[in-house]
Amino acid sequence: MILIRLTVLLSGLVLLVPAPSAAEGDGLREQLRQRLEQLHETGMVRVADSTLLAPGPLQTLYEANAWQPLWFADEQALEQLFRVPTTLDLAAAHGLDPGHYHQQTLADALKRTSDHPNRTQARVDAELLATDALLSLAHHLAHGRIDPETIDPEWFIKRDEPALEESAIRHALGGKNGRELLESLLPTHPAYHRLVKQLALKRAMAANGEWLTVEPGLPLIRPGQSDERIPTIRRQLARLENLTDPAGDSAAEDYDDRLADAVRRFQRRHGLATDGIIGPQTLAALNVTPAERVEQLRANLERWRWLPQSLGDEYVLVNIAGFGMQVISGGQEVIRQRVIVGQPYRRTPVFTGHMSYLVLNPSWEVPHRLAVQDQLPRIRTNPDYLDDMGFAVLQGWGAEERRIDPADVDWANLSRRHFPYRLRQAPGPDNALGRVKFMFPNRHNVYLHDTPARNLFKQDERAFSSGCIRLEDAEELTRWLLARRSDLMSEERIESVWEHGRETTIRFDRHLPVYLLYWTAWVGDDEQIHFRRDIYQRDQRLIEALNTPPPISETPNTDLTREFDA
Prior knowledge:
Blueprint: H1 2-14, H2 22-42, E1 46-47, E2 50-51, H3 55-64, H4 75-81, H5 84-87, H6 90-93, H7 103-111, H8 119-143, H9 148-151, H10 166-173, H11 178-184, H12 190-207, H13 230-240, H14 257-269, H15 280-286, H16 290-305, E3 314-319, E4 324-329, E5 332-342, E6 351-360, E7 364-365, H17 368-381, H18 385-389, E8 391-395, E9 402-404, E10 422-425, E11 436-439, E12 448-449, E13 463-465, E14 469-471, H19 474-485, H20 491-500, E15 504-517, E16 521-523, E17 529-531, H21 539-546, H22 558-565
Parallel strand pairs: 3-15, 5-13, 12-14
Antiparallel strand pairs: 1-2, 3-4, 4-5, 5-14, 6-11, 6-15, 7-10, 8-9, 8-10, 11-12, 16-17
């Protein structure tokens, strides 16, 4: 759709540009028409050594403009044409490959437009390559280069179709420059642009000399000790933590206090225990090269381009890979907590929802999959498990629901395929959902909730759940939500409900957007870059897709023509 809108706006703009001379204009028009008619015959259009990425929108654009050239219309447009190869450098700054947008092929074609024996053909080449490049890159910067659903079946966020202003298109052809057009389409989130800056820094670091590798293995290195690996570690951290002085003699093997401070900062930025002890995890993070970090940043920039331009004035954002939750209000962070997310074989999906209510002292209706995979083996092992944990065994629903005596069930003969019961855990101190759950109805049956397993928050990596998000301090979020989105619950009433254990549902007067996202790299408000391990192995597949030339877009259809006519 964005390509369609671009072509519509371009076609309206061209009418403002003076037509070329009659003789040359006729030749260019006929060549453009003949070249794009190949689409009907072969399904694609080849120009020089490149295949056009958006032949359908191009055909719509030029046909609507009676096959008039865009770039060879007058001197001003021609001047803009020769700037396009440089404009395409913007792709690299945002983690994309300028070579995927005909950059070198276009530069070569432009050299042939003045004195080549077949100048008309060369000009058609340049005309189509430049327009195709800008249309495609504009779409990718605004909307994402990769369709997330083609590489990640657990991505479920609907993306915006950005609206393009005619004034922005004028920059490409009518006077200013194509770079302004492209920059106007980028995500507006400050966090995205902080990542762009870090991409440039990591690229410069990758180009600035050989990266030293710290010898892995034991023993652990503690502050105050000596180790032959310390000089290399000191040199690495001097670059990574911006140490102007590598703490004295760069060859010294003593692990001093200043180096220990740098190690702790490094550990904090990489989600490691900030104990200053240099062990296998810290060494592994130190040995990740700047070139590898560049690829990681590229993947996370692409994920930002998949998101809506605005996340809203107030929202909850969970970073699955970062094991963290933020509540944003008026552009400011008002709550930050650690969270527990799904195990690698029970991944938390990426999606968005709208929180509409919460439940104090919730019961837990165990999903069938968890009942047969997790609970059934425990019941077989411990006959008292159901009573001890407050589970009821049920059959039927609604008026047909019956409570079953666990002693009457032959648990040994039940299986994943044959389990005609439901398990419901009553509210209480052992309830898996803790004292509150926060509901944003979705097809994944995933939500935020409290947990009685407080000790798990001490872990640096917290992928322990069956897909839902467990909160470190659910009470803090509860009080904030009820103060802003419900006038039904005073502090005293909240305490009374919790004290008496009554299951109580409270609807909000306004829904709250919730985003469950997956970032392995981000930059905080303090401009510090943070990296996390790719717990679900999602980065590499995305990086490989970004490094593969983009596919050709679909050919025109009746819907495209109708939108143009409208």
